[in-house]
Design goal:
With 216 residues, the chain is α+β, with helices and mostly antiparallel strands. 31% of the residues lie in helices and 22% in strands.
Length: 216
């Protein structure tokens, strides 16, 4: 299997997803993406949920050359990892924002993105209760209020939808990061192989998580 590539349903071509942290792009990144798309006649370029740009329809022998020309790392798009941290613009750009969701999301992705876990995990960070990054239906989520972030856990928008539960309220961005690190430790210690975090949270229960985290 070519590096960082996913075989497509035709059994012949591949898709790659460059790691664009926080969905923040530069003119240089966009120019490189456009250049390889033209050069290799890539038929599909798709914006992903995580704010990345998937390149679909590559031949096997083209994959490594495209990575070299892009100068970007493969994103953890599949497998048992912290796959993505979705963050809205927050106070960087949105008039409704009450907290710096983009800054927090970037820190979480830079520090923990791609970390090995028992199963897949997705994160949503929003700057206000409008929840544009859908914290309530992410394995781990946080959304801003005037007095800090509210943290919710155990949500999922997958095959078995589940609304998350409030773990703690009125915490700072730094406290969210420390809490998330502890949650990952608990998940790695107690999670079953292939068990998504939302399923793990439902199995062990909110009370267990709070007690283990010292929040009860």
């Amino acid at each position: 299997m070519p590096r960082g590539a996913v075989l497509q349903r035709d059994g012949q071509t591949y898709a790659i997803v460059p790691w664009i942290r926080g969905g923040i792009v530069t003119p240089e990144i966009l120019e490189r993406l456009a250049a390889v798309a033209r050069k290799y006649k890539i038929p599909v370029m798709k914006l992903t949920f995580a704010g990345r740009i998937a390149l679909v329809g590559l031949k096997e022998e083209e994959v490594e050359a495209v990575w070299d020309e892009l100068g970007l790392e493969p994103a953890p798009a599949v497998g048992p990892y912290l796959r993505s941290v979705r963050a809205c613009p927050g106070t960087a750009a949105c008039r409704l924002a009450q907290q710096d969701s983009l800054g927090l999301g970037m820190k979480l992705e830079e520090q923990f993105g791609g970390r090995d876990l028992p199963g897949k995990m997705k994160v949503g960070i929003s700057g206000c209760p409008m929840n544009c990054s859908e914290a309530w239906v992410r394995d781990f989520g946080a959304f801003g209020k005037k007095d800090g972030f509210t943290v919710v856990v155990g949500g999922s928008a997958g095959a078995v939808p589940r609304i998350g539960e409030v773990l703690v309220e009125k915490v700072t961005a730094d406290e969210v990061i420390r809490l998330f690190e502890r949650i990952l430790e608990i998940y790695r210690q107690e999670g079953r192989k292939g068990e998504r975090f939302s399923a793990f949270a439902a199995r062990v229960g909110l009370d267990h998580l709070k007690k283990t985290l010292g929040l009860a």
